[in-house]
Amino acid sequence: APVELREKLSFKNSDFNPLLKIKERIPEVKEVLFLSTCNRVEFYLVTSQDKKEKVLQKLKDFIEEHTEVRWKEIDKHFYFLFDESAIKHLFKVACGLDSLVLGEPQILGQIKSAYKKALEYKTSGLFLNKLLHRTFFVAKRVRTETGIGSGALSISYAAYILAKKILGNLKDKCLLLVGAGEMAELACHHFKNS
After folding, report:
1. Residues taking part in catalysis
2. Cα gap 107→112, rounded to integer Å
3. CA–CA gap between residue 125 and residue 167 (Å, rounded)
4. Cross-strand pairs, 33
5. What are φ and ψ of residue 33, in 5° steps?
C-alpha cells in the first residue's frame, strides 16, 4: 500500500485509541492488538470461529468510520489471515522475515510496544498474552540461531552502507536528509558516527 494510505490508517496523529474503540465498536472482539509502523498497519483480533465474518465486516466499517478512506479504495491493499496463518504471519513479522530489509530488528521492539499498549488498555487477554510471549521467544531464537542479523538490519543502515560503497569515506561529505521519524533518526545516527 502506498505511504499516503498507510498514514491515514496509522491513528498516530491524534488522541484516538483504536484498541479501546475497536473493543467498544465491535463487542464480538475479545482481545485486540494494534500494530502500526512506518511500513505496516495490522490488527490482531481474537474472536470466536462463528463470528469471524461478522467481525471482519465490522472492522471494515470501523476503518471507514475512523479514517479518511473508503473501503473500496483500500480493499486491494488489505489481506486477512485467520487462525494458524495469522499466528505464522506474526512470527514472521517479529523475526524480521516480512520486512523491507530481511532481519530488521526494530519491528520486534514495535511489536513489544504494541503489546505493552494492549496490556495497558486491557485489550490483551489469555490468548494474546500466550501468543505474544511465544512470539518473543521465537524471534529471539531465530535471531540467535540463524545468521539473519548479519546483514544490513534497517533501511537506514542499508542506505548508509550503500553511500559508503559509492562515495567511500563519508567524513568530508555533507548529508541532506529529507524526512522525519524513526528511520530518519537512525540514518542520522549512522552517518554521524561514520
Report:
1. 38
2. 9
3. 51
4. 44
5. -125, 130
